[in-house]
Design brief:
mainly alpha
Length: about 100
Amino acid sequence: MARKEQIIIQCKDLIEELSLEYLSLSKQEELLIKMSEIVYIRVLERVLERLTEEDAIKLSRLTKEERAKEANELMSERVFDFDKILRRELLDFEQEIIQAVR
């Protein structure tokens, strides 16, 4: 999934920014999975708020069926500022993590 891959890359960068490379690779992978899932869920929630009920149901079904390409297409077609939402959620999550670590 292209969007999910973007989130994973950003979360990898965050792990580096927080100097967490000392963690074992398995712990880093576990952390990466958790972080990317949190951000992805937040993005989906924001997108669902902007969709019609019909489109929201369709997106939910596509996501559950793991039809990532079709879900991405639907989000891109129906939510004109999807990339902006993605960036905002990534930045917000990063700030939350940084504040929690301090």
